[in-house]
Hints:
The structure holds 2 protein chains of 2 kinds.
Chain A: E1 2-3, E2 6-7, E3 12-17, E4 20-25, H1 29-38, E5 43-44, E6 51-57, E7 70-74, E8 77-82, E9 85-89, E10 95-100, H2 104-121, E11 125-134, E12 137-142, H3 149-154, E13 161-164, E14 167-173, E15 176-180, E16 196-207, E17 212-215, H4 218-228, H5 236-252, E18 255-260
Parallel strand pairs in A: 4-6, 6-10, 12-16, 16-18
Antiparallel strand pairs in A: 1-2, 3-4, 3-5, 7-8, 8-9, 9-10, 11-12, 11-13, 11-14, 14-15, 15-16, 17-18
Chain B: E1 6-9, E2 13-18, E3 21-26, E4 32-35, H1 37-45, E5 47-51, H2 52-64, H3 68-84, E6 88-91, E7 103-104
Parallel strand pairs in B: 2-7
Antiparallel strand pairs in B: 1-5, 1-6, 2-3, 3-4
Amino acid sequence: MTTGLVTAAEEVVTIEIGGMPIDLRTLDPCFRVFIENRYAGFVGTSPHSHLEFDIDLCEPSQPAAGDDLEVKIEGGEWLLKRGDFRARWNSETGRGQIRQSASPYAIDCVLRIVHTLILARQGGFLVHAASAIRGGKAFLFSGVSGAGKTTISRLAPPDATLLTDEISYVRREGNRYVAFGTPFAGELARVGANQSAPVCAVYLLEKGLENRIEPVSTTESVQRLLRNILFFAHDPALVELVFQAACEFVSLVPIRRLVFVPDQRVWDIIR
Amino acid sequence: MMTEKYIARSKAIAARMLGGEMMVMSAADSTFFTLNEVASAIWQAADGRTPLSEIVAGKICQEFDVDPEHAQRGAERFVDELSQHGILLVSDEPLVESSPTLVSR
């Protein structure tokens, strides 16, 4: 199929996050360029993408339309809905449609949800955490807004590669977990590096008067991890998958509390 | 005469024994519970067919050396709390639906 002088291949931008390519197809050349810039570093060329979305742009909806996110299964497909977008996705065929305003938040949100739904079935997850690679190992720094994710990212030494300051991508590979960089940025407004490494530890962030690392009980580890895992659909089967993924993760990866003073010396104790 | 209570684990939950503790999460409201040893024993015995009084007398009192009256009161409080979150199903008749499989580690 062609549209004027634009071939079908040129209508598609492939965004590859966590090693999972997703084809985004749009007839709007400006939005295509916008996507390429927004996800710079994550624009893939994989010809083997099994996930594909047709994007149909529309005018922004009125605030009265409601901003509450809704994610549910309807007619055998996932329905994703918020004030600024409405999407359908068939997890069997991998195909979907997005009707959205030309907003970065809308496409970002759809991508996050689709990744969480796919990862859940593979034992992985997206989690509110900054992450960085140092010495070939990935470290996650988890916490709610204000806990210090951006601060710890900003303090990262030159030999650390920042994967994200906001949303970490964790995939299970055999008996280990691997963290991948994401373009989902927080206050730093900086897209993460498109790299990956085995997860060595998760630090639960807590600002304090000195730098120290404390043990965390298994129960608290699971509870805190679950609190920070991105979780959009209250589908019982999905809840079970996410819960089991969190338990599996805690059984294989050490979770500790990092009490820290916001200066660069905190990175001296991160091993 | 006291009405007998039968308890069964809801299917709308996720549960797992990890590090010696039973963790339970409600699929409906994501409420998270950690059960102590006694509560775990009641939880695991909640097959929908065994009366609560029998679980208390035959399992809790035997395994944990507690007096029956105290154990029964504690068990009823525990069952009430978990049933309020839809984690345990309670009935005065046997519950025939099977409970979810538990994963241990």
